[in-house]
Amino acid sequence: MKTRTAMGVAALSLFAWSQAPVTADTPLFTTVFTPAEFTARRTKVMNAIGDAVAIISGATETSTYTKFRQGAQFFYLCGVEVPRAILVIDGRAKSSTLFLGPGGPSNEGPQLAPDAEAKRLTGIEQVLDRAKFADAVAAIAAEGRTIYMPDREETLGAGTTDRVQSHARATQQDVWDQRQPKEIVFKEKVQAAAPRSSIKNLDPIVDALRVIKSPAEVSVIRESTRIASLGILEAMKSAKPGMHEYELEAVADYLFKRHNAQGIAYFALVATGTNAAWPHYHAAQSKLEDGDLVLMDYAPDFHYYASDVTRMFPANGRFTPRQRELYGIYVKLYQALLASIGPGPAIERLTRAHDEMVKILNTFTFADPKIKAAAERFVQGYANPRGGYGHGVGMDVHDVSGDRGDNTLVPGMVFTIEPALTINDERIYIRLEDPVVITATGFEHLSAGLPMEIDDVEKAMKEPGLADLWKAPAPGTPLGGRGGGGS
After folding, report:
1. What is the DSSP secondary-structure string of 400-440?
2. Fewest C-beta in 10 Å: which of 29, 68, 341, 397?
3. Do residues 235 and 296 touch, judged by C-beta distance below 8 A?
4. What is the domain partition of the chain in residue ranges?
5. Do 212-467 and 28-210 have the same topology in CATH?
6. Alpha-carbon distance 131 to 240, whole Å?
7. Domain 28-210, CATH homologous superfamily name and number
């Protein structure tokens, strides 16, 4: 298996950004992807819809003082970060039209306006005032052309399609709620304006495109992973008995913001001791105790792309003998699974991973029968594989699947592995997670530079962490350390 290592531990602090540099001025259009990248995506949509048109509306402005973030499907097709924008992709004319509000300077900075500059920056053939969208719908309606529109609610910051869909189901089942998402309301209004047109679901077409990442997308996910790794590594080095879970979260939050993340990809999962047994535990209020293992699963939202990384480490910096056995066998089995990844049918590769795991079990020296039984259950779970390795990663941390029923891995796919080894009666839960990219000859291990082996984790934890650089004052201590008059 040919495996490309993305980074070493020392390289976590270095990154030569290969895309266009970010300037001090507020950009009117994304500097991360070129207009040609978005044009290629829209061309694929045109080829898929034939004589039809596709219509997709962008996210609205927020109702709070939080930064605007465009919906995932809309951004994927044009990269425009303007509230209430509308995109029309014409399969017959092989051109697109972007509808924008007046734009121009506002109290939040400049925005893209419907003018020649917008056409040049975006590469979209026509950029018109949003007020003219009704005329465009009328022209489509007059011909009764088929219209493709998204069915599901948009995903925004820290959003995923599975969470969006479960929230939509819960809303509709709540007799005191039953609000319709923006996408449904927009679709109904378009249908009313074009009653002869058939409305079809655009999501499967765009989802299929999103499954295979371009080199530019991989580059952004690689950087998102680097930032995630930096945050977890600094939290690992900062961890001490007596700290709280939220303090480790805060360390990572600083690193994310320090490296220009636009937000979080999902809420931080920092779980000490038995809290780790809750897979999505995020209360972050417990104190780290001497002898605890700490699970940390956290990553940023970087230029609309997520990562997903997890590590476990001892709160006091040293694994106990039992933890060394428990975590040690898990790492060996986990690495066998990781090493099996590559292009081709996933089931065949998972079968090879199972065979290698059996060999590891037969040569590993167990002192604790409960750990041995847990490891055997873990391996048995791969005896008759039916699915794939894990969930996709991309614009969403649980990215769209594209309905690939054959489970064939092809170059450009990005996903994570995150199997858990458990001893339920003790609420023991051991899990790592790493994102990988399928290549033509194997895979790229994006988080390879983040310590995983016992000795490497313990070595890293001997170094001072970010939290060691500043001692928080006791509650109630006046800022500045001196008394005096009021303001």
Report:
1. --TT-TT-EE-TT-EEEE--EEEEGGGTEEEE-BEEEEE-S
2. 68
3. yes
4. 28-210, 212-467
5. no
6. 58
7. Creatinase/prolidase N-terminal domain (3.40.350.10)
Kindly report the CATH number that applies to the domain delimited by 212-467: 3.90.230.10
- Collapsing DSSP to helix, strand or coil, 441 comes out as coil
Mean pLDDT by 10 residues, the chain (487 residues): 41 40 65 97 98 98 93 98 97 98 75 94 98 98 98 93 93 96 96 98 97 98 98 98 97 98 98 97 97 98 98 98 98 98 96 98 98 98 92 96 76 97 98 98 98 98 92 73 42
Map tokens 């009653």 to a residue: 195
Q: Which two tokens stand for residue 474?
A: 């006791």
Residue in this structure with the two tokens 């699970």, named with its chain if needed: 295
Q: How far apart are CA 405 and CA 70, in angstroms?
A: 30
- Prediction pTM value: 0.92
Query: What is the spatial distance between Cα 215 and Cα 192, in angstroms, rounded to a whole number?
Result: 41
CA dihedral of residues 117, 119, 123, 129 (deg, nearest 10): 130
